[in-house]
Amino acid sequence: MLEPAFRSRLLESFETMPRQLRAAAQWVLDNPRDVALLSMRVQAQRAGVTPASMTRLAQRMGFDGYDSLRDLYAEQLRRGEKEFLGKAEALMARRKRGGDGALAFELAETLERHMAKLCDAATLETVTRAAAVLAGAKRIYALGYRSSYPVACHFAYIYGLAGGAVRLLDGVGGTGPDPLWEAGAGDVLLAISVKPYTRAAVELVDYARSRGLEIVAITDSVVSPLVNRAGAVIIVPTESPSFFHTMAPAFAIAETLAAILAAAAGDRALAAMRDVERQFDTLSTHIYETRQRS
C-alpha cells in the first residue's frame, strides 16, 4: 500500500474513531515526515496519547503494529518526499541539554522549514484559490480567536490600507459577531483557527454559512473542523519546539492574501493608499527621522 492511499483510508475512517485514536490519527496525518523518523513513544508523546493508542490505530488500519505503519512512511521518505505543560517541560529539558543558543537554533530551523513548506506547489495552489474567492467578495469579514486573533487583525489592517472592504470581527462585551447582521450572499468570512480549536469560531462559521457567506479558512490540519465547512482551505504548519504552537506561517499566509488582493485591485488600491498616507502625514502618525540627543 502506498502512503497516499493509506492517507485517504485514514481520512475516511477518522470521524468514526474513538477520541484517543482520532488524536493519534491527526498526528499521523499532519506529521508524515516525523512518522517515519521518530520513535513510537516520541510520536505518542507529541500526539498527546499513549503508545498503546498508536499501536491500536495501526491495527485498526490493518497493520500488525505501529512499526509496519512507520515502515510505510519511511519508504515514502526514501523515495523523496500535548498539551502545553508537557511541551513546556520538554522545552526546558532541551534548553538544559543544549543551552539557549541551541534552543534558539532549533526554533529558527523549524520556522525555516515551515516557511519553505508554504512554497510547495500544492500550498500555493490553495492560496491562489482562496485569494480568488476573497477577491470576488462584496465584503470580507475576518475572524480569529485567541492566538488566531492577531492573524485576522493583521489581514484586516493590511488589506484595509489598500482600500479593501474588510471588517474585523472583534469588540468588547461580546459584540464581535454583531456586524454579521448585515452580511449575506456575496460576502466572505475569512476564518482562522488552529488546534486547540476555539468552539466560538466554529459556531460563528456555521452561523455565517447559514446567512449565505462563503468561507475561506486558514487552519492547521486536514481534519480541522473548519475544513468541511469552508469552500477554500489553506493548511499551515504550527508545530514548534516551544511549548506553544507557532503562528508565523499563518501570518505569512495572511500577508500574502492581502498583498494578492491589493495587487488585483490596481488603481483603486493605489488611490486608497494615497488617501491613507495623506492622513498619516497630516496627523504625523509615524516618526520618519530620529534625532540624537546632544
Features:
alpha/beta; Arc Repressor Mutant, subunit A; Rossmann fold; 2 domains; 5-stranded parallel beta sheet
- Based on secondary structure, the structural category is alpha/beta
CATH superfamily of the largest domain: Glucose-6-phosphate isomerase like protein, domain 1
Shape: globular
Give a count of the beta strands, DSSP E runs of length 2 or more.
Answer: 5
- Quaternary structure of the protein: single chain
Elements, N to C (H/E): HHHHHHHHEHEEHEEHH
Radius of gyration: 22 Å
- Main sheet properties: 5 strands, parallel
The averaged pLDDT comes out at 88
Strand proportion: 5-15%
Structurally, how many domains make up the residues? 2
What ranges have pLDDT less than 50 throughout 5 or more consecutive residues?
Answer: none
Strand order of the largest sheet: 2-1-3-4-5
Classify the fold: give the CATH topology of the largest domain.
Rossmann fold
The percentage helix is: 55-70%
